[in-house]
Amino acid sequence: MSKRDGFAAGEGLPPAVAHSVSASRQWVSEELTQSAEHVAERGRAEGEAWLARLWWRTACVVWGLVVALLLAQALTAVGTGWTAARTAGLLAAVLTGGALTSASWFHRARGGALAPVIGEDNRLSTSRAVAGAWVLFVAYAVLVLVGRLAAASGSAERDALIAGLELGRGAGVVTVLAVVCAIAVLVRRVVGVRVLGQRLQKVRAHRPRAADLLTDDAGRGTFADIQYVVIGGVALLFAAVRLARRPDQLPDLPWGLAVVVLISAATYLAGKYAEGGRPVILSVVRSREAGDLDAPIRTGDDIEIRGAGFVPPGAQGADRLSRMVVRIGAVHVHVPLVPVRGGFSNPGDAVLTVPVPADVEPGRVDVQVVTAAGVETNRYGIDVTE
Fold first, then answer.
1. Contact status, residue 121 vs residue 218, Cβ threshold 8 Å
2. Full-model pTM
3. CA distances, 309 to each of 198, 237, 313 (Å)
4. How far is the C-alpha of 316 from the C-alpha of 311, rounded, in Å?
5. Which residues make Cβ contacts (< 8 Å) with residue 302, sequence separation at least 6?
6. pLDDT tens digits, residue range 348-358?
């Protein structure tokens, strides 16, 4: 960042290229590209090391929650006494924590217990995280009932516990579980198909972050993700309270709340269908500086490509921007990086400027942009004169 800001202020340019705008721009772009590649390589290595250490942290968090449950049960047992339901809940938490710890060990190179909710782009998946939370909760609730059934002494108590597993008691929870799991599978399919069809641009992150659950790939908060996490979390908290109050049956999630969760899931899915889009070139014009005469496009001139979607979300770094290429006829031109304080003025998401190399044959040629995600725009024809 300091080197980029220094170049933006005109510092550090060698005298051999300082006299030429095009030469200095090319030299600065190459220097920034090389530096960005080294930084990106270190970032990838640090991300892999961070993932390898994450399994221990997730295991500590899991057992911390088990200890917190033990303390909560001990405090609430004052005056009322310890019950079989409290023992069943604690044993279910220990079994769940043991399973998660084992999963963390076997997937320790991929983030431990968080490995199933990390997407192919190395970001936390909102749909998988919500579905995983509901799966763990329902599994815990069933284990509580299993513990109580094992400790039951009379046939009437055993029959009541078995009746607590009937669909009529937990229809709302079962419906929500089925929908959120289906959403997780469907979203993965939708994203994969749209990426392969070049209708959605995806770039890989260096490491997952907790903010990924509420933001898009560019780090901006998205309404669809936020409302899905918030409503799903509130419904899950309600179900947990119902389980604590009635540990002899599956939580009876009211249908009103279940329908709210279903509407939230539908909104999230609709947001996944609506996001993204293929980059497009709208026009190509000759770049003109102050004092230049109006003229046709010739080799050596700069052309300004106007459109939309040139910079994929999450590709604002120099290492990703340097991978952008413009095809002018049969010649591949790498888009030069033009630094400004705090970022880059070129390339931009809607406008980018490249020179027309001397190898381009005069005549009618096609211009096409290839983004950092590997997605190609439409072809746009321009006339190049001698």
1. no
2. 0.85
3. 12, 40, 9
4. 7
5. 286, 287, 353, 354, 355, 356
6. 899 999 989 88
